[in-house]
Amino acid sequence: MMGRTLYDKIWDDHVVATRADGTALIFIDRHLIHEVTTPQAFEGLRVAGRRVRRPDLTLAVPDHNVPTNNRFAAIADPESAEQVRLLEANCRDFGIEHIAMNAAEQGIVHVIGPEQGFTLPGVTMVCGDSHTATHGAFGALAFGIGTSEVEHVFATQTLLLRKSANMRVTVDGALGFSVSAKDVALAIIGAIGTGGGTGHVIEYAGDVVRYLSMEGRMTLCNMAIESGARAGLVAPDEKTFDYVKGRPRAPTGADWDAALHWWRTLPGDADARFDREVVLRGDEIAPLVTWGTSPEDVAPITGVVPSLESFEAHKRAAVEKSLAYMGLTPGMRLEDVAVENIFIGSCTNSRIEDLRAAAAVAKGRRVASNVRQALVVPGSGLVKRQAEAEGLDTIFIEAGFDWREPGCSMCLGMNPDKVPAGERCASTSNRNFVGRQGPGARTHLLSPAMAAAAAVTGRLTDVRQLVTA
Ligand SMILES: CC(C)[C@H](C(=O)O)[C@@H](O)C(=O)O
Ligand code: SF4
């Protein structure tokens, strides 16, 4: 038998039935849900007179619409308030565990899954949310689904799927000083483009990926979707198992031993074949920022806004449009771009290590006077509590940052945290699309350390000038 990849193994383990047309019915081990993509799915169940088949494999949390301040006041926007209310009511009606907005464990769905030990190696995991790829960091096959599929999983705990192709992205060598998982994620998308992973599940491999912490691997897998991939994966190893062990929903006792035994068999076989291979060198990755309205529009912070001529002819019109939206001109030094807003948060970069990296830069410095909002939004209540125990909140507050409650916040304009039209934001999130952080907002994606550097200088800045090795 030919060697199998990690993806092949998880897939094979979950096939319930195969059909003549090449699709397969796949069992879903874990279903995360949030308030945005579930109301219609629950309604569909009601109309059909169905129950949720496996409420015990389902976990709910509100995140997109929750305000990150004034948590105990009513949510001002009626639509947001209704979505959050509906999630709770539907979970009560259908017997699903719901982490309430003001619970200590609340947070962004992709932060709380791993934190709670709900995310495990080898499982299939879905959520009505594109950044479900994050959980692939544990060697779980995790991907986003649409609302009608959410209903299908509710009703049957399965999905009808067509298998993707196998792709491997290897990042060899080591990362330079102040270069983080976010820079690796951006470098990969810059190299392969937003369509580079289409039709594939990407396994991230190589020394750089092995060396990354679980937090870093989550950042990397989080952005798999921005390269068009169905999912991102990292083979589980001892670091993975150490992270999972002792989490509230992780297996214990004999179950743990059995799980560990199985998890160790998951990494791909040495002779497994990938349909596509891409190799990057870690030492060639600099701290990166985006200059355009697509996550593939990346450049080293030491660089300039690219010229139209540097693109293939068919791309130039789009680049021109994107630069006009961003208010940038070719040849402009990226370090000369002033920013009025800073966002440190999102399911890409709101975990404890992200906050530590940002705090290390912010410590003893002040947010620049041209910066009007500098938000630090922990990914969950538990991250917030940990950060406070370490005194990170004090560092941020003394530097002039705004220390908030957990949620999606300024990552997208579904709650009160928005970037005003025409203003720029140095943001640790994953999407710089037109209007993503508010109508007319201009987003520059970067790492937490780079966002903190931008906050204290008031412009995009090479963090390596502020911190020494
Ligand atoms: C609102 C939700 C469905 C959406 C997603 O699917 O990703 C959001 O989380 C995002 O990041 O754009
Ligand atoms: S933090 Fe941003 S990317 Fe992540 S789930 Fe929320 S809105 Fe989507």
Automatic annotation (TrEMBL):
<dbReference type="InterPro" id="IPR033941">
    <property type="entry name" value="IPMI_cat"/>
</dbReference>
<comment type="subunit">
    <text>Heterodimer of LeuC and LeuD.</text>
</comment>
<keyword id="KW-0432">Leucine biosynthesis</keyword>
<dbReference type="GO" id="GO:0003861">
    <property type="term" value="F:3-isopropylmalate dehydratase activity"/>
</dbReference>
<protein>
    <recommendedName>
        <fullName>3-isopropylmalate dehydratase large subunit</fullName>
        <ecNumber>4.2.1.33</ecNumber>
    </recommendedName>
</protein>
<keyword id="KW-0411">Iron-sulfur</keyword>
<dbReference type="Pfam" id="PF00330">
    <property type="entry name" value="Aconitase"/>
</dbReference>
<comment type="pathway">
    <text>Amino-acid biosynthesis; L-leucine biosynthesis; L-leucine from 3-methyl-2-oxobutanoate: step 2/4.</text>
</comment>
<keyword id="KW-0004">4Fe-4S</keyword>
<feature type="binding site">
    <location>
        <position position="347"/>
    </location>
    <ligand>
        <name>[4Fe-4S] cluster</name>
    </ligand>
</feature>
<dbReference type="InterPro" id="IPR018136">
    <property type="entry name" value="Aconitase_4Fe-4S_BS"/>
</dbReference>
<dbReference type="GO" id="GO:0046872">
    <property type="term" value="F:metal ion binding"/>
</dbReference>
<comment type="function">
    <text>Catalyzes the isomerization between 2-isopropylmalate and 3-isopropylmalate, via the formation of 2-isopropylmaleate.</text>
</comment>
<dbReference type="InterPro" id="IPR050067">
    <property type="entry name" value="IPM_dehydratase_rel_enz"/>
</dbReference>
<keyword id="KW-0028">Amino-acid biosynthesis</keyword>
<keyword id="KW-0479">Metal-binding</keyword>
<comment type="similarity">
    <text>Belongs to the aconitase/IPM isomerase family. LeuC type 1 subfamily.</text>
</comment>
<dbReference type="GO" id="GO:0051539">
    <property type="term" value="F:4 iron, 4 sulfur cluster binding"/>
</dbReference>
<feature type="binding site">
    <location>
        <position position="408"/>
    </location>
    <ligand>
        <name>[4Fe-4S] cluster</name>
    </ligand>
</feature>
<keyword id="KW-0100">Branched-chain amino acid biosynthesis</keyword>
<dbReference type="InterPro" id="IPR001030">
    <property type="entry name" value="Acoase/IPM_deHydtase_lsu_aba"/>
</dbReference>
<dbReference type="InterPro" id="IPR015931">
    <property type="entry name" value="Acnase/IPM_dHydase_lsu_aba_1/3"/>
</dbReference>
<dbReference type="InterPro" id="IPR004430">
    <property type="entry name" value="3-IsopropMal_deHydase_lsu"/>
</dbReference>
<keyword id="KW-0408">Iron</keyword>
<dbReference type="InterPro" id="IPR036008">
    <property type="entry name" value="Aconitase_4Fe-4S_dom"/>
</dbReference>
<feature type="domain" description="Aconitase/3-isopropylmalate dehydratase large subunit alpha/beta/alpha">
    <location>
        <begin position="8"/>
        <end position="458"/>
    </location>
</feature>
<keyword id="KW-0456">Lyase</keyword>
<feature type="binding site">
    <location>
        <position position="411"/>
    </location>
    <ligand>
        <name>[4Fe-4S] cluster</name>
    </ligand>
</feature>
<dbReference type="GO" id="GO:0009098">
    <property type="term" value="P:L-leucine biosynthetic process"/>
</dbReference>
